Fold these 3 entries.
Entry 1:
Amino acid sequence: MRYPGDYAVIVVGAGHAGLEAALACARLGLPTLLLTMNLDTIGKMSCNPAIGGPGKSQLVRELDALGGEMARAADATFLQLKMLNLSKGPAVHSLRAQSDRAEYARYMKRLVETTPALDVKQAEVTDLIMDGPAFQGVKTKMGFEYYAKSLVLTTGTFLRGEIFIGLESMPAGRAGEFPAGALTASLHTLGIRTGRLKTGTTPRLDRRSIDFSRIQTEPGLEERHFFSFETTGSLRPQQPCYIVRTNAATHKIILANLDRSPLYQGLINAVGPRYCPSIEDKVVRFADKESHQLFLEPEGADTTEMYTQGFSSSLPYDVQLAALRTIPGLEKVEIMRPAYAIAYDFIYPEQLDRSLKIKALTGVYTAGQLNGTSGYEEAAVQGFVAGVNAARFVQGQEPFVLTREESYIGTLIDDLITKEIREPYRMLTSRSEYRLFLRQDNAEDRLLARGRELGLISAARRERYQQSRDRIDREKTRLQEFKITPQPQVVEILAGLGEKLTAPASGYALLRRQKINLAGLRRLGYTPAEELTPPEAEKLEIEIKYESFLAEVTLQIQQARAAENCKLPPELDYTALSGLRKEAREKLQKTRPETIGQAARLAGVNPADIAVLLVWLHARSGR
Ligand SMILES: Cc1cc2nc3c(=O)[nH]c(=O)nc-3n(C[C@H](O)[C@H](O)[C@H](O)COP(=O)(O)OP(=O)(O)OC[C@H]3O[C@@H](n4cnc5c(N)ncnc54)[C@H](O)[C@@H]3O)c2cc1C
């Protein structure tokens, strides 16, 4: 049966990818339909209710600068905020929020239900309706057909999902939820190749059964930092997190029960995330380690459930309980939900182009866990890019593409489409060659103009950004004009900071030194003309301290841009190009990179192959 009325875009899935995709399309004014299997699980955080952390806070801030929602939702619903890695360089400073799981999901549900041009309906999509390679609509399990011009698929861990607790397994998209059984077959009929991945989650503990007097408390952040550049006001009241450690007795129980682990019995035929190993993996792989740190984190203000970060497992329930009860403070702990592992289908992301469109099809975009990634933030940013591009396709506009040089989002997508992803991909700061430039503090400098071009950033926001930027730049000028001479009092204060001054210097020059910050300069008599917010002060210090490094990175970026601007024709037949090595020819023919830069990043393509491509391009252009 055909639904009366067509949409411009259909988004399948209301997880973190689907929400950003649907909101972007609707905010761009297109009639959008969000279809999801259960309206009660919109915006649900499947694993730890936490947003941000290394590599991920950068993604969230970038999404905010482009006009996405996740940052605002995280600011509105956190239980605790922390700034991680402050003892390291600014490239890895990362904001992390422990979120209230239920409040976050309510925020997102309320938002999609009140966004104009966006319809939200409960249904399981089982088939794509195509005209050859061109998308027409989707069919649901109830036999309903919805038609639209483009589609964004964001099915998360649901495609033929199967969960494992000990030697028990059952079909499920997440614990307690149906899997999506049919859609994979529909993708296969269209020639889309899929693989199998797995991930796991940890037990949720009852806080009433924990002896907090015996465990270490972790308080939240005191300074005002938020994910969204738009959030103002004071911090919400925060809840503490806690730290406990496993010990020899915990490890003994785990090792004695490996024969009841589906992982170790080879029951899960899928690849798991390397950077998020289960507790049984950690105990086996790092056998010389006497103990592993676990964080106990609140799941919400209205629940007694506590998340056990670091104890992801697929061991049976009784083993999980016995192992946890060996930990001081957890002797009487009760598990409210056991840990479990889940295996699911994903599509090999090298089948996508930079706009997240499936290359072989027209009007079909994919995002999130379905593309082989793991994590809410990775899902959300892809959802945004896929949603924007599904909308631009309908509007007949050029695809919106972000590059490695300007963003972690571009880095993530480039990695997905050029590296053969065969294990869950998670963002890490080490994945970027430009990480000193791609910081969380300067995401607006890098991307606000792109968000404005898209039409998702208001003039008022752009104005607010410009005022902040001007304040920082004015302060830089004042710092250059502020001169400090080596008088005895100054020398004494500087000695206290571990620094020396033998000749007059500007405040700007002193701020370049590692041990001197704005607070130190104030002690030397400097007062800013205008009070900077903590994020503005942070940005000012970083820009001055790392000026020469940043200049070097900028040069590298200019060189990389030249390679990115060098486009390869989509119809190029690599099998007919002489001079390419066999491996490179096959890889290029299969992957069809869009630029010389992308071709150079393909595994199996070396500089000699790139030289052949450049010679061919030059000959073709007659130069
Ligand atoms: C057990 C478990 C453990 C995890 N552990 C970690 C971890 O340790 N670290 C980490 O970073 N990430 C972890 N994740 C991953 C994290 O939850 C996901 O990366 C993130 O939620 C992906 O977002 P998404 O939008 O792609 O998909 P999801 O959040 O999974 O949302 C998928 C949505 O699609 C809908 N849907 C699916 N199929 C259909 C269909 N056919 N028709 C209609 N609707 C459909 C579902 O109802 C759901 O709303 C874990 C996930 C699970 C389930």
Note: Residues 12-18, 35-38, 41, 46-47, 124-125, 154-158, 173-174, 180, 183, 199-201, 276, 342, 368-369, 374-376, 379, 426 surround flavin-adenine dinucleotide (CB under 6 Å).
Entry 2:
Amino acid sequence: MAKQQAFAEKVKKGTEEKGSRCPKCNTIRVPILYVQSVRSAHQSYRFSSQRVQVCKCNEKEIYA
Ligand SMILES: [Zn+2]
């Protein structure tokens, strides 16, 4: 019984450490690779990707 509880706490702790929690919306930020198509000066498109942390504050912009 005691061992099970210790395991549960360990798992919980691991989950908390995985992402940082946004103080505004209280949601764990999820790191994703955000890819945008960017028009270059020569009328061609290239892709720009960046890692962003997604929480409820910006998920609408990211997934739009
Ligand atoms: Zn947020």
Note: The mean pLDDT is 83.
Entry 3:
Amino acid sequence: MIDFNQVSFLDSVYAMRKLPEADYPEIAFAGRSNVGKSSLINRLVRRKNLVKTSSKPGKTQSLNYFSVADTLYLVDLPGYGFARVSRSVQQSWERLITSYLTERESLACVVVIIDLRHELKAMDRELIDWLTQQGRELLPVYTKADKLSKNKQVKHAAALDAALNIRSSQRVLFSAKTGQGCKELRNRLAFYVENW
Ligand SMILES: Nc1nc2c(ncn2[C@@H]2O[C@H](COP(=O)(O)OP(=O)(O)O)[C@@H](O)[C@H]2O)c(=O)[nH]1
Ligand SMILES: [Mg+2]
């Protein structure tokens, strides 16, 4: 088992050549701005504020590296789908993320975080289709489950499963607020790391 408590911030990376040595497997976290990515990572590592959360979307501009138990890296990717930055800034982020997701050898899995309350967004689908084409391991996580009744959770999750054409065993239902699905997520991630 991975001791997710043993976590520390490593670096904010703005360019491919600044990436750390690829000596540990890493798990990257992707999702639309404000979907709850930082909150998910904080819950995963049992820290309140390791990763800054914000009600203002679009803050994270770099790949933020966290080291866990000298075993793996967690990588918080910049949120996508946020229009308030200039076109050129947007494009330079996209270049970095695209290079990272295509080239990084030590990337064991991409966790794609999706809001359980809403229909699948075009950008989520594009990312997932593209990662699949790349042959990347990916794990969809449906978050903010606490905002829906149990009934609605089941209904919305089934709709997202259908949109992504996956079985319920291929994703995790999650809440950063209540911790729902967190143990399952830890187990899944440990599996990717062990099989890397
Ligand atoms: N109720 C609830 N709120 C959440 C959850 N995850 C994130 N949030 C809230 O959603 C907002 C954006 O979260 P944040 O983690 O900063 O999103 P990020 O931009 O994807 O990193 C914040 O106000 C969080 O408190 C969740 O599972 N449940
Ligand atoms: Mg964030």
Note: Strands lie at 7-13, 26-31, 63-68, 72-76, 107-115, 138-143, 172-173.
